[in-house]
Write a structure and sequence with these properties.
With 340 residues, the chain is mainly beta. It has two helices and 16 strands. The protein has a single domain, classed as Lipovitellin-phosvitin complex, beta-sheet shell regions (Roll).
Length: 340
């Protein structure tokens, strides 16, 4: 990948508006490996009512939880499916998180993270182009349904496509870059469409501005401030399950069984809503090396669930309503890389 630099300023640590414009791109090559220190500071508020036994775990009626920790994430680069694209395999795990707060009026054991706030290990592959745009068709990994009831760490990406930047620590580091040269004060915007669960795509709108130049560990970097908003995500899995169960049982059910199944499906609900997600981030981008040296992001969203499904043990319909808000800060610092 070629990086074109017209001028990068004088390296004084102060913004230099007179610097000439720079054509930015990410310098990735098959075989490259980057290591980032990732910091997480997360706050969760949750209220729930109803029966949760069908989920395999108890869901508290009220919870307020703060989670913090650091981990090292590896970004391994290989050739992408199309010329000018790259697969980035991201792995990492928050093994030593600290938790504070209360669940149903009881203080949390600092060594025991509640089930609903667990963070599963990150193992996702995203495909990006030279400007850092994520290519949804080639991305693989846990999306919001991958472990919906066991943690919220995967809510940041539908299939790794990151429709909600900032919610998922396992994402490509840095904003989408413009196709034209930019200097201090320049702004660019982009709308990213990702396949949703219905006919309407999920749309993320990102606006970025070069707010200044700074010296960072001996290199002059561009400071890029970005704001992102992801559209409302709504889906009802009852219709999906109805189609699956109906197809599987089409040849093996009697008329009475079919009637019972249809009655159950009329009562079944599995509606999940992820409200508009907002995030603000600042990235320290090294134009000479084509890499994000640091990034800090704050993101917030709320999730609601309205469920009425058959209990696995009793067969009776069990209902659950849950509302959750998630606010988190995620930071990234490049530890090692081809040119670090």
């Amino acid at each position: 990948m070629v990086l074109s630099v017209a001028a990068c300023g004088g390296g004084s640590g102060e913004p230099t508006p007179e610097a000439q414009a720079v054509l930015l791109s990410y310098s990735l090559s098959a075989g490259d490996e980057f290591s980032y220190e990732v910091g997480l500071d997360q706050h969760i508020e949750m209220t729930a009512s109803g029966e949760s036994s069908f989920m395999g775990e108890e869901v508290p009626g009220n919870a307020s939880v703060d989670i913090a920790g650091t981990a090292s994430f590896t970004h391994a680069v290989s050739a992408g499916p199309e010329p000018g694209t790259y697969e980035v395999h991201i792995t990492g795990e928050f093994a030593d998180l600290t938790v504070t707060g209360d669940v149903d009026g009881e203080s949390i054991d600092p060594t025991d993270i509640p089930d609903f706030a667990q963070h599963e290990p990150v193992d996702v592959t995203v495909v990006v182009d030279e400007q850092g745009n994520v290519v949804p068709q080639g991305s693989e990994g846990e999306g919001p349904l991958g472990d919906l009831f066991g943690g919220l760490g995967g809510l940041g990406g539908l299939g790794g496509a990151n429709p909600a930047p900032g919610l998922d620590p396992g994402q490509f580091i840095g904003p989408p870059l413009p196709d034209e040269e930019v200097a201090v004060g320049d702004t660019w915007s982009e709308d990213i469409e990702t396949p949703g669960f219905g006919d309407e795509p999920v749309v993320t709108s990102i606006t970025s501005t070069v707010s200044g130049l700074e010296e960072l560990e001996g290199a002059e970097v561009m400071v890029i401030d970005s704001n992102a908003t992801t559209s409302l995500i709504e889906f009802d899995l009852a219709e999906l399950f109805a189609g699956m169960f109906g197809a599987m049982s089409a040849n093996d059910t009697t008329g009475e069984d079919s009637a019972e199944f249809e009655q159950m499906m009329e009562q079944m609900r599995l509606q999940i809503t992820i409200d508009d997600t907002t995030s603000e981030s600042r990235t320290w981008f090294d134009p000479a090396d084509g890499v994000a040296e640091k990034s800090e992001t704050n993101a917030a969203t709320s999730i609601s669930m309205d469920m009425n499904v058959p209990d696995e043990k009793t067969g009776e319909m069990a209902g659950l309503m849950m509302d959750m808000t998630l606010d988190q800060d995620v930071s990234y610092r490049l530890i090692s890389g081809p040119d670090a």
